[in-house]
């Protein structure tokens, strides 16, 4: 009895502790379950938001800021965020950039109408005019359909489209040069076939160099600019070395001698034109090589590429002004062309140094060019008011005014640096059919809208 009484006393003494432990276990398990469920829910909320932000293949600064705010609100640690990013990125579908698809389709449609529409009937000896008319119409549709199908699943950013267009242009000049050497005085079927083959060959070559160099849109634009600079510079050098032949003066007394001189002139002129075109065409790849050799490490945006264009154009104008200031001959076109080419090279290089470590948007680069134009005209207008008759004063005023316009505009616009660039440059393009009221008629039209930020 005594033993039994001691056991009852023990259980009664510790009953409260046993019940407390029991109920504590019951309370802890649901709490842990609820906590785990809450953690999973918070993680899923962030994962869904992160996946929605990446649905278009990129994460904008605004989306990054919103995700950062969401992370703080949910109380998620950086390790949890890293885990979400690692798992989410693996399941995201690969986005194809086809922003440069429409310019490529448009280019091929223009080539279809401009060359292949009449070239194919010409090569096939079509006599009826209906084949040429139909060829123009069919080639337009065929170029659209073929390009659309070929690029359906192709990665075509604007940079790639730009390089393909540039390759097509160089191919066209190469075909023209080859025709001048083979058939200088006549456009035969072989000449037409060469042109129709050289354009797509150049496009393929341009695409290969895009795959090799992987330039940005601004870099591909810069390559195009330097190609044109190289072409004009190469032609200018050739024209400075080899002057264009001049026709002999007609001699009424010695007609036979004049005819011999005229034949020699025709032969020399034909030879000069061949090499003039050859130097011009070779200058394109030389200019592109120069850009890739010395400026391939630049991180050009499209706005930067436009700035190089403004530098090239203003440099070319400065070359003409400088020629007027230094030269006493007003009809020396060869020397003027050389000054103009040197100005283009100097302007592009100077602009490259000016935009170094900066990141211009498209709108900012256009504002810079407009500021330079307004400054040049403003400065040139002052001598007009003062009734200055010396032409060289206007040249100096235009140079000083445009440079001041560049400088003052750069001081008032907020240009991002390449290292601190947070916002991505954006542009939009839209084209849609519309109706235009005209008196008592309604005419079909096209509404074109373009915007740059």
Low-confidence stretches: 1-36, 421-426, 428-433
- According to DSSP, the number of beta strands is 4
Strand order of the largest sheet: 1-2
Determine the fraction of residues in helical runs and give it as a percent range.
over 70%
- What structural class is derived from the secondary structure elements? mainly alpha
Oligomer: single chain
Span from first to last CA?
96 Å
- Name the beta content range: 5-15%
Shape: flat
**Average pLDDT for all residues:** 79
Taken together, the total number of domains comes to: 2
Query: In this structure, how is the largest beta sheet organized?
Result: 2 strands, antiparallel
Query: Any idea what the radius of gyration is?
Result: 35 Å
How many helices does DSSP assign? 13
H-E order: HHHHHHHHHHHEHHEEE
